Amino acid sequence: MCGICGVLGMNDEGLVKRMCDFIKHRGPDDDGYYSDENFCMGMRRLAIIGIATGHQPIHNEDGTIQVVYNGEIYNFLELRADLEAKGHRFYTSCDTEVIPHLYEEYGDAFPEHLRGMFAISLWDSIKKRLVLVRDRLGIKPLYYTTIDGAFLFASEAKQFFAHEGFKPEMSAEAVDRMFTYRTIPGTDTMFRGVYRLLPGHMLIHVGGRLIISRYWDIPDSEAPAAAEGVYVARLRELLEESVRIRLMSEVPLGAYLSGGLDSSAIVAMMSRHSDEPVNTFTVGYGESTDEFDYARIVADHCGANHHEIKISMDRMTQFIPISIWHAEVPLSDPAAVPFYVTSRELKKYVTVALLGEGSDELYAGYDEYHPLSYNFVPEWLRKKYFEFRRIPLTARDKRRYFGVAMKCSVDSGEMDSLLSTGGRDILYRTLRFDVKQMLPSHQLLRVDKISMAHSIEARVPFLDHKLVEYSMSLPSWVKLNGGVHKYILKKAVEDLLPSTIIRRPKKGFNIPIDTWMEKDLKEVIASVLDSSRFERRGYFNADAIRQLSRSHGLSRGKAKYATWLAFMVEMWSRVFIDQDVKSRTLDIARLV
Q: In the chain, at which end, N or C, are there fewer CB atoms within 10 A of the end residue's CB?
């Protein structure tokens, strides 16, 4: 696990080293650099596999192909054996080394052979060709921009601040999308002119030309009709395999455990394939919503080495700026803040942690999916209801709350168009939209950035691409069956877990947000939204936002969401626009 960066169009190793300095948290164990005419790249390393020999960049036999990468290749041993049989010679024991040899063997088709999570930079020194690749589901991030004619890429957007010519500007279009979707789907970021390489895509920069292409997509085909038991058995087989191969590590390993179905199933399978008790971690806040009891049931059932992390919400406020700094987006999901604190505690025990992201999107775990299965209701009406549940603020709402520096161009019609394209039924199309758009831009972004803030590698077994391909091919009735969410997943793991866990209702990474906003955070939010700085910026109609928070209360529906996100956008601006980012001194007392 690492962070990478580079620049094409100039040979400036000093710049690349400064870019790497911004992400020491991603790779505290080592760094490495490569320079060629008009090109330089570098990396920071968190040693997980091949600790002794895995120094990057890694190259082929004659050094003409150079690679730095961030991630894990879980099938590297099989790939290595096949490549050695074809005559390739290896000099390390790490997974990175299969990449240059796969490129030699298969050219631009090499990512199709990889099973894992990755953001790759490959330099072909003979052809003067840069190849950037992002994994199929977008687990690992990869950004790019152009500054003064040079092409830069990085694992985190903040690395571009190392270039003296980078002038950070907030993208009003990105804020508009965030107010619509709670995230920024697509290639845009909060920084104008900075873009994300999409999941399953490859970027090639050669001869002054930039070529972006897709090498993988979710198939629209449906699995052959079969009995329920056949689907269940195959899903169980693939999930078990996915968990097993993600136990590959030379450093301490554990799991986030909420006591919900997803994390509990992962812990149960980890226990089946581990020689020692699994380290598990649960967070609570001293509230009735805490999940300690459920997590204890699972931990006891699996014989885990269980840890309970208790967080005081009145201490959470101080972690808002640093959480934004690492996430690089306004925190539309307040759970990112306690996740930051939880990950800090985990680092005391483990370097690798598994968690259950992706299950809800694959197996229809959210409540708003439920009406999509009502085949007796016209499809257009089901879509409208889903949009009503999913989109917190309409175009009319945004026109009321946005200021002169913003524009409102995104509305529910865009989602309607996205959900209308492609084959199969509306539930499938909605799940596909969430897996392709919402997961990488929201949940996976939070998981990667916040866990890596503490040098923890987060692994997500539900997002193994073989498991995703099979899960997305399943008919909708095995996911939502008789009103039961995640029907097939529950069937697949029911012998591994207590019935209490199988039957319990869905709960997310639950935090007492209403209490936090109404009590511990209320004065901070008020001071930010009442400030002249907030008003001068012109992003929002300051009077409308203030009236909204005061007249309706912060814990209700649109009022809560609009108030929270306006507060977050302002805090993001203070972290990345107002202060000297290179100093990286994030003091909430100064920022508010």
A: C
